[in-house]
Amino acid sequence: MIIYTNKGNPLALKLLISAKLAKKEITVEQLNLSSTSTSEVQHLPTLKLDCGTEIFSSNAAVKYLLPTHDNVASLDEWLEWSTTRLAPVLAHHMAAGHKADPNARPILNQLVKTLNDTLSKSLFLTGAKLSAADVAVWSLLAPDGTLKGAHDIDSLLIWYKKISELPEVIDALKVLPLNDLHFSSFEQANRFGGFHHIVLGQHPGDEPQLLADLPNQIAETVSAEETDLAKQNFIYIKPVDVKEPRTVLPVRGKRNVLITSALPYVNNIPHLGNIIGSVLSADIFARYSRVAGYNTLYVCGTDEYGTATETKALAENMTPQQICDKYFEIHNNIYRWFGIGFDYFGRTSTPEQTKIVQELFLDLLEAGFMETQSVDQLLCTNCDRFLADRFVEGTCPYIGCGYEDARGDQCDGCGKLVNAIELVRPRCKICSSAPIIRQSNQFFINLPLIEPKLRSWLDGVEDKWSNNARMITKSWLKEGLKSRCITRDLKWGIPVPYKGFETKVFYVWFDAPIGYMSITNKYTNEWRQWWQPADKSMNIELFQFIGKDNVPFHSVMFPSTLLGVNKGYTTVTHIMATEYLNYEGGKFSKSRGIGVFGNDAQDTGIPSDVWRFYLASARPEGQDSNFSWVDLVTRNNSELLNNLGNFINRSLVFCEKSFNSTIPAVVLKEDDLILLALVNREIKGYIHSMERAKFRDGLRHILSISRHGNQYMQTQQSWVLLKGTDDDKARAASVIALTCNLVCLLATLLFPFMPQTSRTIFKQLNTGERNIDAEKPFMVQYFETGHTIGKPSPLFAKIEANRLEDLKQKYGGQQEATTAAVSEPQYKSVAEFEKAIQAQGDKVRALKANKTEKSALDPEIAILLKLKKDLQSFVEKEKTSTPATQPSEKIKDLEEKIAKQGEKVRNLKASGDKTIWQPEVDVLLKLKGELTALTGGVQPAPASKNKKKK
């Protein structure tokens, strides 16, 4: 791994320390910001993984390097606090020469007091163990270790010294020495001594809004060339009202972008991971694509054929068509509420789908890429049908498992894939009778014959795919492709148009991707202009947004079909695959009430745009990510409310109250040009990120712009200028005019993520929606002097702590009753466990035979699995158990330790130095807590700190 950084960047220091603490091999490359060779490096520091993935967020990088612990919520809060609270104010304090700005002191007092209060109660910021939070905060305060001029910070100093003495920290400082931290000269750094000239004793005042994320003197990095370009491009651009055609078709000479997202299975309700994994990600990109002026079409729909639909229909006592109709409407309504802007949302159970699938099959057959093979299948003579994998159950064939309710495709007991005909004592899921093995002829697509074409095609496109899509595809090709079966003996599916195969249908993996074509056909009869253009020079880029589990079907199977047909079909140019989004560290489960599903989000009272924003910020791009209620609330209250919403509202209210809702003239000065240059950097980074579907980074650039805006407003202090001379008032007017233009830019960049919010901002600005020029990443002047804005109003609402707890409890699942059922009674022998397992297994089989609803069945299966796990733990414990210390002996030992520690504390308190005796008091309290827990007594509450001494 490599850390790319500039000289003296504490965010890089925290990455290096984290890597060393985690014993990971890492190198550091220090770059010169003014060097032309680093023009492609958008953010510093950047962590580049061995697989090629780049992580730009320093908080995400430090969590990757130094794995999280139990207190994940607290860790996330501290990391967020360090970048949005501590770092900006320290940077502002240093920029003012430490003493020049009196507004900074009370804020610094408050920030340092926050640290000290926390550390007086625990060894480290998140508890008893060192975490990434400590590294992040310490790195901002590094490196001289004295906190010059500070007092009443005993615990903070102990904590600081403890980390300073770690060998990993000492080694890291040798690589990244920060004694010249962020100053223009070494002499200046020596004079100020790092971040440590903090003077306490002032009363905390009202905190101004926070500054930019990076705590370095970023303004000093702005070059004259950047300010010249900013000035040249800040010109008024009259908005152009471009109306999209009713039917979007490819246009010669334009960038034509065709976007699809994985077709969701129609037999379930999508959870948040499903939504961000495909449809929402595709929608964000489609909206960006339109804002950038590209000719864009976005289609999707429900995947309706296959065994999963038949299984769901059986469970709900409905026909497959009725199931599809029911869940299509559920999906459609959920996506509408989330603001997903499909050009067309269709389904695969249509005549158009049947026609195109059969056409492609016959073309492959004619081209010589089809073959028939005889395969062993399970036949239920009672039901008179071949059984699809999910219609077979039996005992798992793997040694050491023996789970009696394994499915024909996978065992839920051990998690391994299963071949249906290998199940021990298989039974039909419908009638429970034992099936027999019969041979059945099926069609296979001959992938080995197509493989040379596929490899040649991959060489020209895979560099535009997400890294996981490339890796998964390479793993499939590593040992060469094998022929794949494309037909099945089912009833619900597209019939195979070939003599002797009239009772068979196409396997869902073969027909589902073709749904992109048939859905486009439902949108327009001219669908072939997108999918099979007659004009070979027509430039069409196909972006497909999917989860990583769908990669092989989009990178190998579907392209092989189109390449084998060889009739000029459009193949994918960009595969954008996500990893998995987990829920509070676990998996989503509808049956157990764990996690937020599409229909639940509406019931939370949280606006759909806030959901969109949060899911995009938590999008699992380089690795699995985690949904956290604390993270959602923190981001809403900090990033949306305090940062973005605050800047927009302050700007527009100033314009309304001080300038009669009229945009004044802009007269650019040096500070304005620096702001514009910094904003232009973020615009360039935003476009770079969005073009590559790096939405988390795209959002980060937007938030950085609003932080630059907040910093600018705070330093310019228009409210003070308005009370001054005529020149001061004119300057205040220019500042507000510039910030109102910045608001319009933010609304434009935010539109892909939060369309309703952006429309509200445009309405408050009294202007129409705007576009961006991806070829010219510069801020322009959006308003002529004299433009009248609308009525400002707050955009976001705070989510209170009590509401957070309600949401966590509501969607945390109802496993308590299940857990209790598993835990009681406590079995005291292997025989008792085996008897309980047998009884629970019989209960599960009886419920399955009665076609019990999944919501009622799953908890019983969980009990069975837990019993088996408990039996294994019981056996292992019996083997390794040793005589335990008697409780009375433990109590006596603790009482002796408490007596000795109490005497030690009393002697140390006589010295009066709290830094010495406070850690020993903590040890004493811990020992007393252990004694209380062992004896079952009630531990006395600590004395109030406000209690007066007698």
TrEMBL record:
Signal peptide: none annotated. It is an enzyme of class 6 (ligase). InterPro entries: aa-tRNA-synth_I_CS, Anticodon_Met, Glutathione-S-Trfase_C_sf, MARS_N, Met-tRNA_ligase_1, Met-tRNA_synth, Methionyl/Leucyl_tRNA_Synth, MetRS_core. SUPFAM superfamilies: Anticodon-binding domain of a subclass of class I aminoacyl-tRNA synthetases, GST C-terminal domain-like, Methionyl-tRNA synthetase (MetRS), Zn-domain, Nucleotidylyl transferase, S15/NS1 RNA-binding domain. GO terms for biological process: methionyl-tRNA aminoacylation. GO terms for molecular function: ATP binding; methionine-tRNA ligase activity; tRNA binding. Residues 829-885, 890-945 form the WHEP-TRS domain. This is Methionine--tRNA ligase, cytoplasmic.
